[in-house]
Amino acid sequence: MMEIFSYPSDAAEAKVRSITGRGLGYTADDEKGVIDILEDVRKNGDEALVSYIRKFDAPKMTLSELVVTDEEMEEALDSVDPVFLDALDRSVSQVASFHEKQKENSWIDMPRKGVTLGQMVNPVDAAGVYVPGATGGMTPLVSSVVMGAVPAKIAGVKHIAMVTPPMADGKVNKHLLAAAKRTGVDVVYKAGSAWAVAALAYGTETVGKVDVIVGPGNIYVTLAKKLVSGVVGIDMIAGPSEILVIADESANPQWTAADLLSQAEHDPLASSIFVTTSRGLAEKVQAEVEKQVKELPRREIAEASIKAYGAIMVVDSIERACELANRLAPEHLELLVPAPFEVVGMIRNAGAVFMGHFTPEPMGDYMAGPNHVLPTAGTARFSSALSVEHFTKKSSLICYSEEAFMKEADAVACLAETEGLAGHARSVTIRRKK
Predict the structure, then answer these.
(1) What is the pLDDT confidence band of residue 23, given thresholds at 50, 70 and 90?
(2) What residues contact residue 37 under an 8 Å CB cut-off, 6+ apart?
(3) Does 331 qualify as catalytic in the annotation?
(4) From 303, 331, 334, 361, active-site residue
(5) For 52-75, what is the mean pLDDT?
(6) How far apart are CA 193 and CA 196, in angstroms?
(7) How large is the average pLDDT for residues 273-302?
(8) What is the pLDDT of residues 129-158, one digit of tens each?
C-alpha cells in the first residue's frame, strides 16, 4: 500500500511531483458556488445566513437561536467531564504560555539628530475564529478553539467571535462551548461553512464584522477565506494535512507507522511521507502501516490517503533526508533520531518540527504550546504558524524637527522629481520658502 522508493531516482521524483501537485482539491464550480454564497450574505445579511444554516445544518434554526446564550455556555461548562476540563485547562495554560513570548512591544528610536522614528503595535479590534463542525458535532475539534482564541486574547483583541456549524438539533457540542468559555471567546454564533465566513467578513444585522478570520475548515471554508482576504485579514490558505518523518535505524517501526497514520486519517488528500536511511526499517514500517490502518475507525480515509499520497523514501544519509524535507517544506516534520538537536540545524522549511522519539505530532496538536495552525502545500518556505502577530498591526511613527527636515529636504525633493512626482517635491520645497 505504501510504496518504497530509493531517493533520488526517477520513480521517486515522479512520486514527489504527484504529491506536491495535488493542490487544494476544488473545481471552478466550487469557487463559483462560494462566490454566490458570499454575495448573498453580503447583500441579504441574517436572512441569507439563517437560510443556509437551515438548508445544510439545522432545519429548525431561527434567528433568535443564532447566538449561543450565557445559559448555554454555563450549562456546557457544568456538564463536561472534570477530566476533560483538566486536560483543556492544561492545554490552554501551556498554549498561552508559549504565545505570551510572541508579543511585540511598540518602540521609539532617535537615529539622527532631530529625527524620531518608531513603531506602534496594536491589536485588531475584532477577530473571528472558525471551528469546524466535524461529523455533525460528534467529534468536536476543541483544539481549534484553543489555537485560534488564545493568541487573539494574548494579542489584546477586544472582541473575539467564534463560528461553528450547529448540530441538527440547533445546538453546539458542549465541549466546544466549554473551550470557548475557558479561552475568553466573547460570542459564539451557530453558523459554519462559507456563509459563516461571509457573515464575519461583511457583518450582518446580528453578526458583527471582524478584522481578521482564522481557523481551519473544509474546502468551502478555505475558498471563502481566500475570497474575502483583503476585506479582512486571514491566517493562511490551508491545504490538506501533511507529515514527513525522518528516521534512522533507532526508530520504532510501530510508533513510526502510527505517526504517519495520524495525519492520513484526516483527509484522502493528506500526505504522509517517511524518509529513512535504513531499508530494513522502511520495510518494517511499510508492513506496520498496512496492519495498523485496518484498525482505524477512519480506515477508508487513511487508506485512500496512504495509497495516493503516501510514500517511503530510502536515502543514503540524514543530510539527504533533510534536503528532501526542505524541498517539500512539510506542515509537520518529525525527527526520529537519537540526537535531534544535531539534525534540526539542517532544517530550513517546516511548519513545526517534532524532535525525538517521544514527540509525536499530536503532542503539538493539543498540548505542547506552539500553534497547530500551520502552513501547508510547501508554503512553509515563506510562511509561519498562526501566532499573536496575526492579530496585530504595526504603524510607523515619523517625526522631524525643522533642523533635521532642512538637512534632508533637498534629497527628498530630488528623488520625488526623478520619479516625476512634482506634488511630492512641492510638499517639501514649499517648507523651505520663508
Answers:
(1) confident
(2) 52, 193, 194, 195, 198, 224
(3) yes
(4) 331
(5) 97
(6) 6
(7) 97
(8) 999 987 677 789 999 999 999 999 999 999
Is 357 designated active site?
no
105 pLDDT exceeds 70?
yes
Look at residue 135 in the predicted model and tell me its pLDDT.
67
Element (DSSP H or E) covering residue 421: none
Three cell numbers written together for 77: 461548562
Phi/psi for 273 (5° steps) reads: -120, 130
Instruction: Record the cell numbers describing residue 182, joined without a space.
Output: 475557558
How many whole angstroms separate alpha carbon 305 and alpha carbon 310?
7
**Structural domains of the chain, ranges and CATH numbers in brackets:** 4-23+239-369 (3.40.50.1980), 28-108+132-234 (3.40.50.1980), 401-432 (no CATH)
Scanning the structure block, which residue is given the C-alpha cell 441569507?
Answer: 48
CA–CA dist 82, 73 (Å, integer):
16
Among the options 332, 334, 361, 372, which is catalytic? Answer: 332
Q: In the structure grid, which three cell numbers stand for residue 176, read together?
A: 466546544
Question: pTM for the full model?
Answer: 0.94
